[in-house]
Specification:
Chain lengths: 396, 396, 396
């Protein structure tokens, strides 16, 4: 992209409404207006273009970003580290130990104590239904209080790096990938997406990706068919919210009972395993009482139940039902015959889409950086213009 | 603060004596002159003011700071990370494992090997009486030798992030808080401080905070009443040193046997649990011989003994004996009915002072940054002026 | 060094051939031409000189470096951290757990996923013969593919921080030390090096240092005598390669059966323990099958066998056979009576060379930084000139 094209993109960004972003957190995409989401995409695209031109996107000279991973993570950890590095923030990891439960006052105190220099707090907390989002809100309230009380000189923004409800950094990267694939955000209108459950020989995968997908893509005019075996339903309130958003956008969001049906005529397929909502709830209850034996029994029972749906695998045969669909996945995928005996996707399908899948993942650092920048500066367009101008002064 | 006010503060700093700071370590406050301590406060204040004006306090373009935590820490870890980030240093953690004992030659070699690019080494080593301070001195000697031998191109300064004897980054932050609360360093003269033991259902808390407080505050004209149950005395040599310093300053430092007595007419109260010196010594001996059973017996015995002093709790009733005193704590506090059944402080007292307590903690990153800057640059006033000038060139 | 002298060094660097370095990895010194190795030394020397003049060597404004340590490390970790810091890169550690075995597709995906902003990937993987180098090549191929596929916007370079075959950051630092000790690279010609096995009460030390030494020093005209007890031979293909390189350089590389013989008339001695190649191979086989008991038996057997060669210790008596030789070690050494009862070197010899040994280690950060810079910029001389010019603009 030329400097001129970047400048035009910045000019278009200047006109976008950003009021739901400044000094706010990014927890759920449906808390944000459509225009704000488009602004995030635009900022991400400009940051990527600047970097492509070897122009520094460093916004801060110093400043911390805090990461807290209450579940293992390699990809998201590196995406967050990359995003913060792009902007000039230094990541410090807050490792409280995964098992610790968060109590109100402790959360408030710890969140305040680590935030004296923090611009952003990235949290992954996806293991227990009813917990992750609540924890992120508690952290956000704590730093808001700290800021209002004059204890914190700046109000760090909490970025949801995956919770029990939504996975906005993933789905916004997915959206960027779709925009690139179809050639513009307008081109998404009317496109059909199959968000389908798929078999995996594992247990307890979060619901946040399918929930995030059905809560986001319909807002951009995409028709979503959600498919899963009986009993693998998502959180009812999220489904209700997604239906509401789809209705507002005037598009169809339907639930169906087979991968075949969802794939029929699809432009995009997103086959991915998740645990039934009911199992996740029981698991949270048992984790609280600490009954190890019952937890193991639940895992055993769930794995056995899962195994009844090994047919839910994305194969080339299934792909042939689609309109030459784009295969998507948040990675890592369970690839049949590669990472497991039988899994979410056949090896030939995965191999055909390996490069696009890696590109899909490549949007995440820019999306996260855009979320941070939009939350932490009054005028992101001016910040981006400044990066461009500084580079031109240097070379000029 | 305006740029003009900052410039005036820098001008006053220029006149201060700093010779005990340059290329030295910061291990104990009583190793430093009063003027040097005031200079640290002044530098911290200026750094804070610069940051408040959104002026970069980055002093280094690159450079490492090493942190070594031989005891768990979240707050101090983030304070050190924040301080280093403010100045442009990248923290690398030296994690040798908590249990490892330090031998002379190994300390020398490891300290040298990690210090080729290091400007500062922050160490927390507070678990064993007679060990932490000795270890820090060994590290300081190692890097001094490395520098004199031409192995190290710069001599990193060791910053005590809490040892068995003193906790200078805490008490200097406490001092900054007191200066702000009372409206100037001169206003501290004649103010009464109750440094009191308080009950906690825990065992083996370090003596460094009360020792650091009695060794520092009298030097600024504050009258300190140290209160604890029989047997909970501090290290005799530290008490002797504190008495000597109090005498020099012409103020009273007295030891009394009840919280009630210490609180009477106090302007400041600092109720906090610690382990008896004798118990800490026995624990160190037992840790050396590695006798697990005896260590557990000591813990059991100590907890039982502690429980006889549950009355040592900071309540509003006790607070009413004071002259509307400021309540201080290094955090986290054991709050009765919140973090434990019975603890150091009643929930209503803590809640009333929550915001000031968080502010107290907020001085620590600036104090640490000031210690590093004062140790690593010939002329801190010039360094601070440079930050101001650079910002004005940019905007000018 | 004055700015003028630095400028002259940069001018000489400009004439050197660097084509085997740009956008390549640094895995084995014998993959690189002699001129390229000299260029690395020159860049390292200039970086050191710039830093000595307090001139920033920051080349990147932002950017990541990934470190992956599949074996414990303190020194190399800090050397890599220092090198990256010198150049402006932020290190993020990829900690997969030491025990995990690398499978093709997983390596490709993980390497790509973490590399979106990465300029360099430093890997230590020295535990298993036949594994470390293969793993590094797999990572290098993955990021090469990612770059060619347009998934990665830049192609990070893999830096070998010690594998099963070579330890180039160590041996290049050793070479820089030798150049400094003898007063120039030309002065190395004809100098005699004793690379000797030495006794250590440990098991399974990698072969990479002796292999790296015999593969590197003969290329600069040094005559190497490799000494070890029967059965402690190195990898046959590495010995063959080293013989080929020595023959090309017209120097002698001989294997002898005693330390005494190797030390005779030596200008440099490098006595260091390593495990027999055959033992390392057996260990890798057993680690694969996971037979714990057999692994323990192998360790026991090896330690007993080692103990037959306690006479292989570097003493002053042995040193007297040399031509006032320089004693070298990659550290930490097993020092008799200090870090163990009987070890690689007598305490008096080690003490006499402690300062030079620390200096030897001090070259490593600069060598690593030089490897990264040479791999990541078209024209390192211009990059270094830029650092100098920027500093002069500032002070001018």
């Amino acid at each position: 992209m030329t400097a001129r094209e970047i400048r035009e993109k910045i000019a278009r960004l200047e006109k976008k409404r950003l009021r739901d972003l400044l000094r706010r957190d990014f927890l759920l995409t449906w808390d944000k207006g459509r225009e704000e989401l488009e602004a995030i995409l635009a900022i991400a695209e400009i940051l990527r273009a600047l970097r492509g031109e070897n122009i520094s996107t460093r916004f801060w000279d110093s400043g911390l970003a805090i990461s807290q991973f209450r579940d293992n993570s390699t990809r998201t950890r590196f995406s967050f580290a990359s995003a913060c590095n792009l902007l000039g923030l230094t990541v410090v990891d807050l490792d409280e130990g995964k098992s610790q439960l968060a109590h109100g006052e402790t959360v408030r105190e710890t969140a305040t104590m680590v935030s004296f220099m923090a611009e952003a707090i990235g949290i992954r907390d996806d293991l227990y239904i009813g917990r992750g989002h609540a924890y992120m809100k508690a952290v956000a309230e704590a730093v808001e209080k700290g800021f209002l009380d004059g204890v914190l000189e700046q109000r760090p923004s909490v970025i949801n790096l995956q919770c029990d409800i939504d996975h906005p950094t993933q789905t916004m990267a997915d959206l960027a990938h779709l925009v690139s694939h179809f050639g513009g955000i307008e081109a998404l209108k009317g496109k059909k997406v199959a968000m389908s459950w798929a078999y995996s020989p594992s247990y307890g995968k979060p619901l946040s990706v399918p929930q995030g997908v059905i809560g986001l893509l319909p807002r951009f005019g995409m028709e979503v068919a959600l498919a899963h075996p009986e009993g693998y339903s998502l959180m009812p309130e999220v489904l209700a919210k997604a239906r509401e958003l789809a209705a507002e956008a005037g598009v169809d969001l339907r639930v169906c009972g087979s991968m075949e049906e969802a794939f029929e005529g699809a432009d995009v397929v997103y086959p991915k395993s998740w645990a039934p909502f009911a199992v996740m709830e029981e698991r949270t209850r048992l984790a609280e009482t600490g009954d190890r034996r019952q937890l193991e029994e639940l895992e055993q029972r769930s794995l056995e139940h899962n195994a009844r749906f090994k047919g839910w695998q994305c194969t080339e045969k299934l792909m042939s039902r689609t309109r030459d669909a784009l295969y998507m996945h948040c990675l890592p995928a369970d690839i049949s015959g590669v990472s497991c005996a039988e899994g979410e996707v056949a090896a030939d399908v995965f191999e055909r889409f390996r490069v696009p899948l890696y590109r899909q993942a490549g949007y995440k650092p820019y999306v996260i950086a855009a979320m941070i920048l939009a939350a932490r500066t009054e005028n992101p367009a001016a910040a981006l213009s400044g990066m461009l101008a500084k580079a031109q002064n240097r070379s000029g």
